[in-house]
Specification:
Elements: H1 2-10, H2 12-37, H3 41-62, H4 67-90, H5 96-119, H6 124-127, H7 131-134, H8 142-161, H9 163-171, H10 173-178, H11 183-205, H12 210-222, H13 228-252, H14 258-276, H15 282-314
Helix pairs in contact: 2-8, 2-11, 2-12, 2-13, 3-4, 3-5, 3-11, 3-12, 4-5, 4-11, 8-11, 11-12, 12-13, 12-14, 13-14
């Protein structure tokens, strides 16, 4: 065990992948907390699938495989998808979750068509765009980690300074509007931050699984606390821990993808929290219910015995 840890740390490529996945999990955990509280868990999945055509179009326009250009294309596609969701919900009777499903299917269908076209072109076999479906964390280099570091720090700083505002619009947008806050602007900013967090994570986790890394740490953290500030911090820690452990486990087994393993680690942490959390966990709820039933039976038995005693006294026995 110790030797494998030493070998893992001595490998420069493993260190870069670990730092990248850790920063990815940290930023996604922080942003995902607000998406979860606003009941927009499907939003991350929609934005991730919407980013695929943006990546393909960026490759078609430039003809080069540039991570920076791919991120710009995915970011533009994600912003367009958010406006599409809002337009559908505003000018129709369709609810937001249904609108997200429509946008997800539409953009992902376009992305698959463009991806197929690229793969059948002369340079398609060299593009490697199919890796963005399920992620390829092993391809990350120092420049990618620096980009993730800058984006993660920026997201965390924005969430820190606008924490009270994001908290208000997450719990009671009407009250925030009554206080004079620009609710529309804040909601758009939160959507934009979600787009950025999703787009940055696509390279490591892929469009299929990045939504899990956005929501699962937030849901896991919710089992342990009732305070939003603590929940956001715990969600970031859980996301970062998932990235680190996913990188380590994938490095111990050959041909094991890092992104899916990180998502599986986050899922295991969720199951543990759902079972063992002191107040909200399934085990603690079962124990409380068992104690309440036992206490109720004891009280009922005591009342029955007390009633029999009073009856016996009345009879002079």
């Amino acid at each position: 065990m110790m030797n494998s840890l030493i070998e893992f740390w001595q490998d420069p490529n493993s260190r870069w992948i670990m730092f990248g996945c850790m920063l990815l999990g940290l930023s996604n955990g922080v942003i995902g907390s607000f998406s979860y509280l606003r009941k927009q868990s499907l939003l991350g999945d929609t934005l991730a699938h919407a980013a695929l055509p943006g990546i393909c179009i960026a490759f078609l326009l430039t003809g080069t495989k540039s991570i920076g250009l791919f991120l710009v294309g995915a970011l533009v596609a994600g912003v367009i998808a958010t406006f599409g969701i809002q337009w559908i919900t505003k000018y129709s009777r369709i609810k937001q979750d249904t609108a997200m499903g429509i946008v997800l299917s539409f953009f992902f269908g376009i992305g698959i068509l463009l991806l197929t076209k690229i793969q059948h072109s002369g340079s398609g076999s060299q593009s490697g765009l199919d890796k963005y479906l399920f992620g390829q964390a092993a391809s990350m280099v120092a420049e990618d980690v620096y980009l993730m570091m800058g984006v993660s720090i920026l997201l965390i700083i924005i969430c820190y300074f606008l924490f009270k505002e994001f908290k208000l619009i997450s719990f009671d947008a009407g009250f925030a509007r009554g206080m004079g806050l620009p609710v529309g602007v804040l909601e758009q900013m939160l959507l934009f931050l979600t787009v950025v967090a999703v787009v940055v994570g696509i390279q490591a986790v892929g469009v299929v699984l990045v939504a899990a890394l956005l929501i699962t740490p937030a849901v896991t953290a919710r089992f342990w606390t009732d305070r939003l500030s603590v929940m956001v911090i715990l969600s970031g820690i859980i996301g970062a821990l998932s990235g680190v452990m996913g990188t380590y486990f994938s490095s111990t087994v050959s041909n094991l993808p890092t992104g899916p393993v990180a998502v599986l680690v986050a899922s295991v942490l969720f199951l543990f929290s759902a079972l063992a959390a002191p107040r909200r966990g399934w085990a603690s709820k079962w124990i409380r219910q068992y104690r309440m039933r036992s206490s109720y039976k004891d009280i009922k038995k005591s009342r029955v015995q007390h009633g029999e005693l009073e009856t016996n006294k009345g009879r002079g026995m």
